[in-house]
Amino acid sequence: MQHFKTLSAYMDYLELPRPEHPMLSVFSASEGGFLPCPKESSPPITNDCYSISLKKIVKGSLTYGRTKYDFTNGAMIFLAPRQVLQWDNSAVFEQKGFSINFHEDFLKGTELAHQIKKYGFFSYSANEALHLSPKEEKQIESIVGNIEIEYHNNQDEFSKDIIISQLSTLLKYANRFYERQFLHRKELSNSLLEQFNLQVSSYFESGQLQENGIPSIEHIANQMSVSQRYLSDTLKKETGKTTTEHLQLRLIDEAKNRLLQPNKSIAEVAYELGFEYPPYFSRLFKKKEGISPTAYREKYSMN
User: Fold this and answer.
1) Could you give the number of structural domains in the chain?
2) Residue 137 is assigned to a structural domain of this protein
3) Distance in Å from the first CA to the final CA of the chain
4) CA torsion sign, 230 to 233 to 239 to 242?
5) CB 47 within 8 A of CB 79
6) Residue span of the structural domain in which 202 resides
7) Band (282; pLDDT cuts 50, 70, 90)
8) What is the DSSP string of 109-161?
9) Tens digit of pLDDT for each residue in 166-186?
10) H-only helix segments in the chain
11) Global pTM?
C-alpha cells in the first residue's frame, strides 16, 4: 500500500495544485466555480495528513464502495492520518464547498495537537458525515474564510497561531453540530441499536462464542458497515450506554437462560459464553445483577 509522508507528495498524487504552505493546503470553490477534483480513481493509500472537507455535490453522485451518498445539502467529512483511502471512477461530479489538508506535524507544539485526538469524528466513515443546516454551513464557511485569508497572505510570525486558532474553533463547532445530529437522528440510533442486537444474536446463535470467544466491538461494527467510534458515540448519546455495556447486557441475558439449566456448572456457562476466566464472568454477573450466578440459580431455579 502506498503511503505519503509529505503533504506535497500527497497533493501531487491526487493531481491537485501544490500547497502554498509545506504543511497546509486550502481549497474552496470560488464564486460560480467548483472545487478541484482529484484523480478519478485510486487503490488503497494512506498519508500523514488530516483532512476536513465540506462536500456539496452539484452534478453526479459520490460513491463509496457500492453505496451512493447524498451530499447535495452540504456534509462534512473528517479524515485522520493513516486512514486507508480508496475510490473508483464510478462517479463524475462537480462539487462546491472546501477542502483543508494539513500534515500532523503542523500541529506540533500546540494545544490542538492534543485536543484533536479527542474528536472522535475523525474516525467516522463517509456515510457518517456531518450534515449541516444552511445556518450551520454559513458558520463553518465563515471560519474557513478566515483560514483562507491567512493561507493566501504573506506568512508572518502570527500566521500559524491564527490558523491553528481558527481550526480549533472549526472543530469545536463541528463537535457541537454532531451533538445536534445525534439528538435529532433518533430513528437512526434506534436502527443502529436494533442492528447491533441482531448481529450479537447472530453471533451467539452460530456457536461462535465458544469457538472464537466474546466478539469485539470492532467485529460487530464491521458487520454493520459502520465505524466502531460512530457506533459507540451514537448509542451512547441515545441510550446512555456504551457499546461494551450493551454487549455485556446481552451476555448477561444469555447467561440467565443457561444458568437455569441444572446440568451445567457456573464454569461451563462461563466458557460457553466465551469467558476465558470463570471468576471474571462471576464478577461481571454480580456487578450487573446484584447477585452472584450461584445465588441467581438458587433463587430462580424451578428444581
Assistant:
1) 2
2) no
3) 61
4) positive
5) no
6) 187-300
7) very high
8) TSTHHHHGGG-GGGG--GGG-EEPPHHHHHHHHHHHHHHHHHHHSPP-TTHHH
9) 999 999 999 999 888 776 655
10) 7-14, 112-115, 134-152, 159-184, 186-205, 208-212, 217-224, 228-239, 243-259, 266-272, 278-289, 293-300
11) 0.65
